[in-house]
Amino acid sequence: MIPEFYEGWAAAPKILILIAFMAVGVFFLVKFCDLFVGSASAIAKKLHIAPMIIGLTVVAMGTSLPELAVSVSDSIGCLIDGGNANVAIGNVVGSNIGNILLVLGLSIIFTPIIIKKSNLYKEFPVLIGVSLLLFLFVIIYGSATGNYVITRWMGIIFIVLIIAYIAFLVIDARRHPVEGNQEEIKDMNMWKAILFVILGAAGIAAGGEFVVFGAKGLAVTGATAMGINHDLAESLVGLTIVAVGTSLPELVTSVVAAKKGENDIALGNVIGSNIFNILFVLGISATVNPLTTGSEIVIDLVVMMTVTLLLFGFALTKKLNKKMGIIFLVIYALYLTYLILRTVGVIPQI
Description:
Strand order of the largest sheet: 1-4
Number of helices: 12
Helix content: over 70%
Strand content: under 5%
Number of domains: 1
CATH superfamily: NCX, central ion-binding region
Shape: globular
Radius of gyration: 20 Å
Number of strands: 4
């Protein structure tokens, strides 16, 4: 944990140093995530693992590593210092909302995406199912106890489900092989690749620590200056700045893929990332330390479920077009406006 060395500093230099920590953290997350995924893919290629399996497992998990680093860092910090893990929960929920509305919205503005039957019958049901499970866990448990918590037993269930999901992906890929080209995966010496995987993981962990340190410090500093609730401020930062920052790998990958006409990658990246964020990121984070948040999470989860179902509804038309992308971006702008108004107290909490 980074010590709060800025205590006693004036507000202006404190805010600048916290923003610098967040910027460096996001840079680390993006760069070291790329190093990790590239090196892991090279190892998989050396071991003659099929390209489809590499994409469904190594790359999908790799693009969720920034969210994992931030959420686990926040979870550990709350375990040591006490308090609510608003950044951890807000990061995942905000990332899932941003992946659909911002990442996919921008992608389909560049290039429409044709929906395959396999997407409708395989990926979408899993995404809707795990999103609904998270929603029901938090809402039902919160209504019964008055605490909105992702408990350790919920985290364990998520981990079991992600293991089962990965097993399903591998088995399904072997039963229905899809031709893929491994030439795009860079050749690398095995020991060099292993070293880069270790360095990538360390860089991602450091980036997550920097982002959480800067985000929480910025939220608390701003909340104190404005006289607003600290938990709400942390939730806002987690749902916006941190969520967008940790979604940069998905954003870059999907937009570039869409511009190249690789529609399956753009859509699969978003769906796979959202599934991994819930099962993989929240599962591990909650197992480390139960995640507690305020009642405002109810609205955020409702938004997450609504945009997930809206995406599925659009997908039933068999094509995601530019008009749908604009709708996604408009909804995202409205949601960000709501978050800001909620935080400053214009809109009361539920």
